[in-house]
């Protein structure tokens, strides 16, 4: 069964996605700062695991973005009603 | 013609439903609730782009880290003769490359200390203050201890890179660079 959302419902979903993406971005910001600090301090063991974690964060964000696009393609309410 | 979607308050000039409007009209809506929705949606897309930029930055660090590991340890290099460095004096040298200025100091008869000269805050040149047993960065008033090169005041958080020195006869050689996080 195809689901339809009102704009108010879509708004809640978008705000939820926005909060999640924002949190993941803040984690990535902290991660790149810490990685740069350790790289400049000569620690060569940190950059690779940090990059892997950052890629995972990006994939999570892309998944959420895909959901956002899918949500946007749906009309706000059932046009048959 | 009435729009079937009751969420839209205004009517487009051509009377067609919202879904059939050109993209630019959907992206710049007249209705305030729809405008709120579009602005949050676009901001989320921008944040995902920021996330991609962070990931590219991480990859760049991995690349630079790999290049540094590939270069290996720098070779030993003569800096100065001991007679050119009286007690209580310092001199500037470049090691391991010409773009890396370093400081060689002789606070007492038997001690030789060498650190990278670039402040770990924003790369200003630090100045030795041997009588106060510290190195000072004049740009943002950062201070490093003379004995260890560790930050003691101001914005720097990382210690200065330590240059290992060796006395071979009367000649002073730089033999390596020791980067430190704490």
Q: What layout of secondary structure does this protein have?
A:
The complex is a heterodimer of chains A (81) and B (182).
Chain A: H1 7-40, H2 47-73
Chain B: H1 23-27, H2 32-71, E1 77-81, E2 89-94, E3 101-108, E4 111-116, E5 127-129, E6 134-137, E7 142-145, E8 151-153, E9 162-168, E10 171-178
Antiparallel strand pairs in B: 1-10, 2-3, 3-4, 5-6, 6-7, 7-8, 9-10
Describe this structure as you would to a colleague.
The complex is a heterodimer of chains A (81) and B (182). Chain A has helices at residues 7-40, 47-73. Chain A is mainly alpha-helical and 81 residues long. Chain A has one domain. In chain A, helix 1 (7-40) packs antiparallel against helix 2 (47-73). The termini of chain B are far apart. Chain B has 2 domains: 18-71; 77-178, Rieske Iron-sulfur Protein, CATH 2.102.10.10. The radius of gyration of chain B is 30 Å and the shape is elongated. In chain B, strand 7 and strand 8 (151-153) form a beta hairpin. By secondary structure, chain B is α+β, with helices and mostly antiparallel strands. In chain B, strands 5-6-7-8 form a 4-stranded antiparallel β-sheet, with no helix packed on it.
Largest sheet of chain A: none
Query: Which fold name corresponds to the CATH topology of the largest domain in chain B?
Result: Rieske Iron-sulfur Protein
Share of helix of chain A, binned: over 70%
- How many angstroms separate the termini of chain A? 15 Å
Q: What string gives the helices and strands of chain B in order?
A: HHEEEEEEEEEE
The biggest beta sheet of chain B is recorded as: 4 strands, antiparallel
The tally of beta strands of chain A, per DSSP, is 0
- Structural class by SSE content of chain A: mainly alpha
The named CATH superfamily of the largest domain in chain B: Rieske [2Fe-2S] iron-sulphur domain
How many distinct beta strands of chain B?
A: 10
Largest interface: A-B, 45 and 40 residues
Sequence of strands across the biggest β-sheet of chain B: 5-6-7-8
Principal-axes geometry of chain B comes out as: elongated
Shape by Cα distribution of chain A: elongated
Mean pLDDT of chain B: 91
- What's the oligomerization state? heterodimer
């Amino acid at each position: 069964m195809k689901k339809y959302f009102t704009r108010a419902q879509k708004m809640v979903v978008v705000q939820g996605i926005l909060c999640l993406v924002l949190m993941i971005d803040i984690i990535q910001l902290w991660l790149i700062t810490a990685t740069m600090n350790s790289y400049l301090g000569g620690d060569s063991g940190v950059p690779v695991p940090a990059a892997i974690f950052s890629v995972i964060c990006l994939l999570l964000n892309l998944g959420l973005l895909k959901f956002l696009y899918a949500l946007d393609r749906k009309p706000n309410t059932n046009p048959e009603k | 013609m009435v729009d079937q979607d009751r969420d839209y308050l205004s009517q487009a000039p051509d009377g067609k439903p919202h879904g059939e409007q050109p993209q630019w009209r959907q992206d710049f809506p007249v209705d305030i609730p729809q405008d709120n929705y579009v602005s949050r949606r676009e901001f989320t897309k921008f944040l995902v782009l920021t996330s991609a930029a962070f990931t590219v930055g991480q990859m760049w660090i991995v690349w630079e880290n790999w290049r540094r590991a590939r270069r290996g340890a720098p070779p030993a290099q003569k800096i100065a003769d001991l007679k050119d460095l009286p007690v209580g004096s310092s001199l500037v040298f470049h090691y391991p490359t010409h773009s890396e200025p370093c400081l060689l100091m002789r606070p007492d008869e038997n001690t030789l200390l060498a650190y990278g000269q670039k402040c770990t805050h924003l790369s200003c040149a630090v100045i030795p203050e041997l009588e106060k047993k510290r190195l000072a960065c004049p740009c943002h008033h950062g201070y490093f201890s003379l004995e260890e090169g560790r930050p003691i005041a101001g914005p720097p958080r990382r210690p200065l890179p330590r240059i290992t020195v060796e006395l071979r006869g009367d000649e002073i050689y730089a033999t390596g660079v020791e980067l430190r996080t704490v």
